[in-house]
Amino acid sequence: MAIKKTTEIKPGAYEDAILGFRNHWYPGFKSDEIPEGEFKTLVLLGENLLVKRIDGEVYAVQDACAHRGYKFSEQLECYTKNSITCPVHAFTYNLKNGELVTIPSDPDSSLIGKANLHSYPVQEVKGMVFIFVGDIDPPAPLIEDVPPGFLDDDLYLVPSVNVTCDCNWRIAADSGFDPNHIFMHKDNEMLDFLKFPFPIASKIKGDDPFEEIEVVETEGGPKGLLDDLNETIPVYEHTFECDGEVGTMKSMFPPDPEGMAAQGFGSITGSLWLPGCLHVDPFPVPGMCHFEWWVPVDETTHRYMITYGKRTTDAEEREQFKQEVENVWYQQGYENFNRYDTILNNGMQETYGDQNYLYGQREVLAKTDGYTLSWRRLASKHNRGIQTRYGKK
Amino acid sequence: MAIKKTTEIKPGAYEDAILGFRNHWYPGFKSDEIPEGEFKTLVLLGENLLVKRIDGEVYAVQDACAHRGYKFSEQLECYTKNSITCPVHAFTYNLKNGELVTIPSDPDSSLIGKANLHSYPVQEVKGMVFIFVGDIDPPAPLIEDVPPGFLDDDLYLVPSVNVTCDCNWRIAADSGFDPNHIFMHKDNEMLDFLKFPFPIASKIKGDDPFEEIEVVETEGGPKGLLDDLNETIPVYEHTFECDGEVGTMKSMFPPDPEGMAAQGFGSITGSLWLPGCLHVDPFPVPGMCHFEWWVPVDETTHRYMITYGKRTTDAEEREQFKQEVENVWYQQGYENFNRYDTILNNGMQETYGDQNYLYGQREVLAKTDGYTLSWRRLASKHNRGIQTRYGKK
Amino acid sequence: MAIKKTTEIKPGAYEDAILGFRNHWYPGFKSDEIPEGEFKTLVLLGENLLVKRIDGEVYAVQDACAHRGYKFSEQLECYTKNSITCPVHAFTYNLKNGELVTIPSDPDSSLIGKANLHSYPVQEVKGMVFIFVGDIDPPAPLIEDVPPGFLDDDLYLVPSVNVTCDCNWRIAADSGFDPNHIFMHKDNEMLDFLKFPFPIASKIKGDDPFEEIEVVETEGGPKGLLDDLNETIPVYEHTFECDGEVGTMKSMFPPDPEGMAAQGFGSITGSLWLPGCLHVDPFPVPGMCHFEWWVPVDETTHRYMITYGKRTTDAEEREQFKQEVENVWYQQGYENFNRYDTILNNGMQETYGDQNYLYGQREVLAKTDGYTLSWRRLASKHNRGIQTRYGKK
User: B227-256, pLDDT tens digit by residue?
Assistant: First the structure.
């Protein structure tokens, strides 16, 4: 457990955020992963959480007794639906707020109501359970930690993916916004399914790698970066010569701007938001948008979540879209496309796992890494603190 | 191997005793686990031991050649029953005292009789093999490291359990004497077997959590704590309210003081002794007593041993008691009761495994933890040194 | 990856060389382990290498993209036979020299030709692929890192063994030259096959354990130690007394100097060469010689390689010897003899794995360890630097 009691907000360096940024909201589950009355566990930024839905609402407390540290989830014991009892000495806590409710051997103890579990603020929106990991009270508004428009009433969202990946969350975040990691997708089955002429690279128009990136840092709103992906020059084929041999890399399909426009693709906008969410709109097809999160689990693991969105308030259209996500886009969008991001990202963990490698000491960044650098700068400036293991710097 | 040569006795803090206390006697085996002539290995306080019974007596030496560190147990080689030969360079040692006996390539070496293995003092009593881990020579008398009366002639003992547990030895020791960990036993099958009205908690009568605990620190005798378990107020049922819900915890059977007395239960005394032994008398039934040890293996593992005792010098009664332990009490006392201690203790290891958590920094101790605190104080005051890894503080 | 850029040669202490000595040539593979066009990976002194044979020549580069560290071998991607392309951003490198050849998103980048992979010098000789791990440029001549005569035209070599062992390379190197580790071989099946009267120990004739060892440190040549194994007094039987018991160790066959001479065995010479190669000549039989290497992989692992040699330039004799190695000596020389070295060496890793144990602090060296000490001194004096993990001392 890593709970420090402080309410001060001190942004820290991205390089130090191996466990993520503290005092932010993170998606913990898709709503349908937490049925009424079942306990779930979750590791978030290195902390162990015990989670339960009670009368429809989701609550989360630290998964360790405040008395002597017993991990509740090892042997769950309950005498009411809204409490958890430690099986060792019967210390009993209110799951809704973490308060110590009773100690059978000392019912009048002055600890009652004081030796409480840390209770994590929870907000369930858009079919997702967001959890605030931090100390500031009240927590920051959720609207500041999700992409603009995410909470709009007319945006219907269908959470689709929640998987664990074997690399630090920053490796994924560094590549999420980077317009040239698209090279890795060039053979993905989804492109064939959509007959999508997907470029293998994107050239920056001018000389300034930061020029096209819009930094959003409005007071009281989410902090992020915006990029019109059509502002770069797409590359569909590239030939090179190496020591007398000639090699050619190319897209699955040649460029077809008219075809794309006819399908309804105008400009595609990518944007990246603290504490770690990518929004691509439209994607994978016109009329749909895509959100993905990289949620820190521990030093070498993160969870990858995807939700798909459509702007409609019509109930029937919503139901139809839900079916479509389940029947088509989970397979095409995740299995046949974004799953490759997670595989390739894992291939950078061994190198980045050496903390000395990180961030400028041994990387050789190129012109197109302006995107990644912009993200690291924004994240370093606007985060609300660095998560650390208890007792460690 | 972790052998430091010093004869000074310097008690250290319980908080630092992650590998146990040095210069004490620990039970290593039940006697029947070491048949004549067979080598056994043992890890005790982080040290590797090689153990053999020769002509009836048990001997223990370090399991690493003094010359170049080969671990003998990897490939045992012997040319006499009382020696061990390193298979690499044939350095040959006397198992009874660790002395270097011969080097075939240099039979007149000045190392003979000097480059010896550490030889661990061993005493086999009451069907158990006690081993002294330390440097002081001669070792402390065994009688100072076992509960009072343990060596009495009329006390017949039947060693019953020797198992490895996945938590530091102190987690077990902290709970062994603690009268409120009994909550964890409330559903244990043994209580049903005995129709035993076992309380779920014990209230302290006054306000002073240390009042009822008798500290025993007689010069030349074992150091420990004594408690008459009947001095506390037993709780058989406890009801609480949490946010409108009412919960009730209760014992398997209602209290029945007359019934207990009729069975022969008067007062039950628990006592806890350095370096880590609990004595409960009578237990589990009148006429029997129970000893248990928590023996440090390494930082995250200990061995749990139980022996059952009965005061009788009659040979037939002894044989009958031995059968009873094997046929009834191993199952009822260990499998159906104390095994649950070991399971629950393991559930605290993740929290206590973080050394920063330990001992006052993040624990929230309650009134009834006076027992645990008394033990930690006594142990810190009367141990004969802290065990450390070689070359580490 | 552990690449430091420096060209200075600073010999370091053997005690510090847990990852081996930098700026030396090491055998990486037997030639037949690298067929044309197949990628192979290799860990050498803690560094990850990507290896490929192109048009007959073997090349090796660092197995991590210079841009963002992706480990190429996780998903190999190539557009020409002589290049490697990172699947993440398409940075493409020349495998022959490590040069960055192209970046599709920025083909005119100033990084081209500059943000290169480390390219390891490779020399394939005598059926073995030697790789230089270091920074000095040009690398030291290979002839300085192999035993004298190894590259002679009339010496025909048949590489036979390349296996991984679970101990640090120094444990193997310390014992390779040591004339008393032969005790471990006394029951080996090869001795029975050859009816070889192999001693169980070797006594030094005089009092000076260093007297018989010839140190070779000629400028511009390999640095090593030479020993005529017949200069010591062989021991075929040794009797000792331990506490009233008498033990006898003896060779499989009694000494038979005439028989040995009749078989063609004169003197056998053992020699040990930086960075870690043993040469025994003749061995296992007259007319043959044996080379073995201990190649550092990481802190707790090394590779063990054996090649057998015969002096002949006759093509038919060479082919016949190759068959003989494959049909007889792999089984007899390795499986039935030297494999036991690797097993016994692993039994010292637990002790030597504690760095505090190493080298004089807790070893108790005997007279016959002059061989081992001479090797450590020579190695400490003539190595070209200590290998360290990147960013660590």
Answer: 877 778 999 999 999 999 999 999 999 998
> Does the pLDDT at position B366 exceed 90?
no
Q: Are C21 and C294 in contact (CB under 8 A)?
A: no
Question: CA triplet B223, B229, B231: central angle to 5 degrees?
Answer: 110
In 3D space, the residue among B39, B77, B81 whose CA is nearest the CA of residue B61 turns out to be B39
Burial of A301 (0-12, 13-18, 19+ CB in 10 A): middle
Q: Residue type at B151?
A: L
Q: Do residues A126 and A289 make contact, with C-beta atoms less than 8 angstroms apart?
A: no
Q: Which residues of chain A have pLDDT under 50?
A: 1-4, 358-360, 391, 393
For residue B47, which of B93, B98, B3 has the smallest C-alpha distance? B3
* A90–B366 C-beta distance less than 8 A: no
User: Is the model's pLDDT at C359 over the cut of 60?
Assistant: no
> What three-state secondary structure class fits C274?
coil
Within a 10 A sphere around the Cβ of C307, how many other Cβ atoms? 23
Beta pairing partners, A386 = A21
What whole-number distance in Å separates Cα of residue B132 and Cα of residue B142?
A: 9
The 8 Å CB, 24+ separation contacts for C252-258 are C252/C186, C252/C187, C252/C191, C252/C192, C252/C196, C252/C197, C252/C198, C253/C191, C253/C195, C253/C196, C253/C197, C253/C198, C254/C197, C255/C197, C255/C199, C256/C197
Question: d(Cα B336, Cα B186) in Å, to the nearest integer?
Answer: 11
The size of the B-C interface in CB pairs under 8 A is: 134
Checking phi first, is residue C134 left (phi over 0); if not, alpha (psi -120 to 50) or beta? left
Contact A386, A9 (CB under 8 A): no
Q: Which of A68, A75, A108 to mutate to test the interface with B (most CBs of B within 10 A)?
A: A68
Contact between C201 and B64 using a beta-carbon 8 Å cutoff? no
Of A146, A162, A133, A178, nearest to A348 (Cα)? A178
Residues of chain B positioned with their CB less than 8 A from the CB of A94: 242-243
Look at C87 and A344 and tell me if their CB atoms are within 8 Å: yes
Q: CB of C235 within 8 Å of any CB in chain B?
A: yes
pLDDT computed for residue C355 by the predictor: 55
d(CA B314, CA B301): 39
Give the model confidence (pLDDT) of B146-180 as tens digits: 999 999 999 999 999 999 999 999 999 998 888 88
Helix/strand/coil (H, E, C) string of A19-34?
CCECCEEEEEEEHHHC
CB-defined contacts A:B, below 8 A: 132
Q: Determine the Cα angle at A100 with ends A97 and A102, to 5°.
A: 135
What pLDDT does C352 receive?
Answer: 84
Residue with token string 């088509």:
A328
Q: Output the six-digit token pair for B317.
A: 């009664």
The full set of domains in chain C, from first to last, is: 24-133 (2.102.10.10), 142-382 (3.90.380.10)
**Structure confidence by residue, pLDDT tens digits, B299-340:** 999 999 999 999 999 999 999 999 999 999 999 999 999 999
Q: How far is CA C162 from each of CA B258, B367, C157, C165, C273, rounded to the nearest angstrom?
A: 78, 65, 15, 10, 19
Beta-strand pair B201-203/B233-235: antiparallel
**B174 contacts B225 by C-beta, under 8 angstroms:** no
Q: Is B80 helix (H, G, I), strand (E, B) or coil?
A: coil
Among C307, C304, C301, C294, smallest CA distance to C375 is for C294
The amino acid at A290:
H
pLDDT level of residue B211 (50, 70, 90 thresholds): confident
ipTM: 0.94
**Which residues, 6+ apart, have CB-to-CB distance to A219 below 8 Å?**
none
Q: How far is Cα C14 from Cα B28, in angstroms, rounded to an integer?
A: 39
